[in-house]
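anyone seen this seq b4? input:
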Amino acid sequence: MLTSILFKAIPFGLAIAISPGAAFFGIIQTSLSKGFKPGILFAIGIAMSDMLFIALCLWGLSGVMENEMARKIFSIVGGVVLIAYGIYTFFSKRAHVSEKQKQQVLTTEKAEEGLKTMGILRTISKGFLFNFINPGAWVLWLGIMPVSGKTLKEQILFFLSILCTIFCIDLLKSFFSGKIKNAITPHIFFIINRIIGVLFCVIGIYMIVRVFGSGLL
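predicted toks r here
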């Protein structure tokens, strides 16, 4: 069971982690301006907000997912969401975050040197809020929910595997932030967006086709 869950979860984690969105640039910018450790703290904040997203999804939809008909309907809705997200990503031309988001990341802490704990909490909370206010993150986790598994144990293992994959990639992004920022040109972002867009579209189509193949409703 664990192997099959990992096989499903890791591609999701990789796709989310390398997607050139606000979180991607937030980690890189924080690492460049403040160092490796603050970049990791920022990534921890993002992971915490993702865990909250997932917990809310599981808590709100756990009863629904136990019903076969509701699960099929939700699978169709999730498939449509992922296809829409994939199309948006495919045609997205943005290769950087907005100036407002950039300033939010670049804002330096004014705490005194002795207040290291407060600085750590501020960096984590900054990463948390930076990701939490992104509506795309909510949509993405809701879209993934139908393929997370039928039991709560499977769902938890699935999402933990995704989060671990994302965090491992975030560690690498933070460590190699300078090289990543300088190496990834707009053309590379163009290619990455299209690969990720196609990937999410394929997953969304598969989710819908699987419902029809097993007998709609």
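The chain has one domain: 2-213. The chain has ten helices and no strands. kinda curious what u guys think
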